[in-house]
Amino acid sequence: MRIVRPEEPAIHVLVEDIADPSIVADVRAEILAVFKELTVVTGAWVVAVVASDTRGRWDVGMRGPKGSHFVSFAALPAQVAQVAAAHVRRTLRRLFASDVSH
User: Is 88 a member of any domain?
Assistant: First the structure.
């Protein structure tokens, strides 16, 4: 059982289509670090990182209290963690811009 304090967002990171468990762990860790870094983010979020139908591309889907958001990018599997985290960071900063500026 996981106890979540109401002031902390519940974050679920799903990673598919990457065979190397260390890369999967890096993707999860980088994305979770973004949520910890941006302390203004509230609510429960699901972030899914999966291989796109287009070869060499990856899809990142985010769903949370401020809606659903999607981005696709090109990267080698070893680069997915950093690129996905950058997209998540950019999206969250945009969504919580008024809260970040304080």
Answer: yes
